[in-house]
Every structure is written in C-alpha cells, then in structure tokens.
Fold this sequence. Notes:
The protein has 14 helices and 14 strands. By secondary structure, the chain is an alpha/beta fold.
Amino acid sequence: MTALLDLLKRRARHQGHNSRGQTTRRAFLAGLGGVAVGLPFLEALAPRPARANSGDIEPFAIFFRQANGVACAQSTEFGDEPESFWPTALGALTPETVAGRSLDELTGHLSRLLVVRNVNMEAFDFADGHARGALQGLTAQGPVVPGVGGDSEANGESIDHRIGRELNPEGRDSLVLYAGMSGGWLGGPCIAYRGPNNRRAALHDPMLAYQTMMGLDGDQLEELIARQSSVNDMVKDQLDTLMSSPKLSSNDLQRLELHFDSIRELENNLGCNFAEDELAMLAGLSAGYESNIGDEVLAAVRAHMHVAALAVACGYTRSVSIQVGSGNDGSTRYRNLDDDSLMENFHYVSHRRASHDSSGDPIPNADKLHAMVDRQFAQTFNYLVDRLAAYELPNAESLVDCGTCVWYNDNGSGPGHSRRGIPMIIAGSAGGFLRQGECIELHEGDNVANHAAVLNTLGSAAGLRTPSDELISDFGDASLDRQPLTAMMA
C-alpha cells in the first residue's frame, strides 16, 4: 500500500502543476489499457501543510451561453411587452421577487445567485447584432475586420480560454462544448477564442467530451463499451487497494465514493453501458447533440454539464464554456410549454416574425414563446447548479460554492438584439469572492459600456492574477474600462 501511495504522490507531483508551477493537488489511478482516472483531493496524498485546508478547491468558471436576448419589458412594433425575466426588485432575491419570472426556476438556489442588471457591451462595428454579441460575449473585443458581420472574427482571446491557459495543469485547454445543429449563422460554435482571428473548435458529442477528459483513445472506449463496463471497472484493482488503505480519512473515503459514483452516473446519463450489438459509435450515444428539437438539444446540454461538473471536480480544468445553438440559434425549435408543440425556430421567435429578418409574418404571442425558451434555459442552468451542489466538501460547502457558473446571453432582448442589458446570472461565489443572494444594477442604470469590466471581475473570481498578484484589469479591448467591479464583490 505504501508503494501505491508513493506512486500516486509521484504522479501528482509530475502531472499536477499549472503554468505557474503551482501544485494543483491532482492524482490519477492507472488501469486497463492505460486508462487514467483523475482523483479528487485526498488528505492522505496531500503535503502536510495543505491538510488544514482539505476542503479547499481552486476556483473555476463555467460559462453557459444563450442567444437572442430574453423576454423582458420593452416596446416593439407589435406593442408593449411585459417583463418575464428580471426580478421585481433590486436587493435580496426571494421567491416573491422572482415569482412568475423565468428565474423562478432557480428558486432553490436563490441564496447562491448574483443577478447582475445593466451589463452593456461596446457598440463595436460588427454590422450585425448577433455577431456583435456572440463574438464579443467572452472576448470583450471588436471584429478583426469591421462592418462585415459574420465574415469576421473576434480580435482577441476569450476569458474561458485565458483561465485555462494560465491556470490549468500544464496550460491544458479549457473545455469548449456545443449542442445543436452544426453550422448555421457564424458557423456554429463561435464564443471561444485562442486569440485574434483564432476561433476555438468545440466538442460537439458529449461522449467525445467525456472521452477527451478521461484520456481514453478510441480503442479503449470501444473496449469499455463492448465489456459493458465502467471506467471505474477499468481501475478496479487499484481503486480497491486505495479504498482499503488505513491512511485514508473518512472524508477521503466519502470524496472517493462520491467521485466514482459521479463517474458512473455520468456514464449512465450518456448511455455508455452498451451491448456489443449496440456499438453504433459515439455519434449515437447522445442522440440530441446535433438536433433542431429543443428538448433533445437541452438533453445533450445536460450531458455536457455532467462532463463539466466532473471536469472541475477532479481538477481536469478550471474553465468550461457551453454554447447552445449557432450564432443566432436559428435552427432549434423549443417546446411550447402550453401545448407541448414545437414552436418556430428560436431566431424567428426572437424577431417576432417568421423570418430571419423583418420581412416575415408576425408570430402570434411571440413574446410569450420567447419567455418559454428563457424558462427552459433557466431549468437547464438549474440542472448545472444542482450537479455542482451535489459535490459536498468537508468544510460544509459544496463544489458550486468554490467557483462560478455564469448564464449569459449574446443580446439584451429580442427583437432588437440590443447590446444593453445583457443578462448575467451567476451561481457560486468563487470561495466568497462574489456577492450572493442579490439582484444588483451596475452604474445606476446608466448606459456605460461595462461588459469588459464584468469579464475581468469574473476572471479574477476564477483565480486570474497579475504577476504582482493583483486582480486582472487587462482583459478585453484596451479602449474599454477593464477595472474589476467592486459592486459585484463580497
């Protein structure tokens, strides 16, 4: 047993460093076919000085993107539309302030939420509201080539990529996940960038994302499926030996059991326990990842969320972005909650017309349909928060409290695709960095381009620092105000 613990410690020292050479408390079990399964933090494997903080998990950020704005109070060519999204009042979030709004789907987590109003993007010349919102959303940058809409790219790195580049072990890329039809406006996945004019590809199939995270090659994954077994089974001998160690504390045992239960649940959710005659390859494992039916797309998103939760829990990454639908989500047909029918594609609904421009026939009750889409996104975001909250830590916190989950939008509202009032719903305080249980309004509602400052705040909450260990204030276009916002901080 001592030899095994020594081996795990050597693995942790060898593999568990970020780009700054800091230890990340990362260890692995090696099993059948060279499979490597990441372990959670264990007291028995920790250097002695770290044991007093055994519940500490390094901050992380998960970004969940929705297109087309939300159904909020506004005047349109079709008349005045009621408020269906934002709380009824600033200040403390209560069941009463979110009642009847899409945010009431998150009532069980109100104490963990920071609802940020009056987030405004810069009016960069993208010549298209969707391109301006989607490409600027995580970059706070304008276009490489102004005025050409979707024929340009963002002129800088996205915050999710920077978090991964600076904080992940060995600078490992952040996870970029996508659900919905391939292609479409802005080419499908369009929110993550390595740098100017350098868009990142996304993992589309949740099983491929899982395979990538677990370090399985195609043969190993096929063997796992053919054996109708779990990744846990592929490291069973090593796991049994580790679990029997008298050096493990009760907290260690609980963390290991939850960790491997979560792996099993993830595999079951993705349909991994296939029989040999069901080896329909990975594209069939999560059928809705490329679909235009909203229920199927959001089911695939939930599968991605299982991957994301496991990825941050075991230290694979400190940054994940999840995009739903193309640049204008112009293919997905979400469910009408009143009659279970499929509504028109979301972009049509956001325009309130049956067209991708202003020429189509009006869609009856389009504002109510838009609110139904918002509600389904709120339900899906709640699913992510639930997943992270299920990871309980020894200090009585849960995993969600250690990081931030950000549900944000490309636009403030449809049909105008406004750059103002961008929805920003944040769950988790990143270890006490951010305020919680409140709805706040930045800059007293003034039309201040503060979006870059918000991203610098979120990057700082996730752990980004300057060489002098100050909060970052250099992310986004240099012409913008990039100072972190104390109004968002605890």
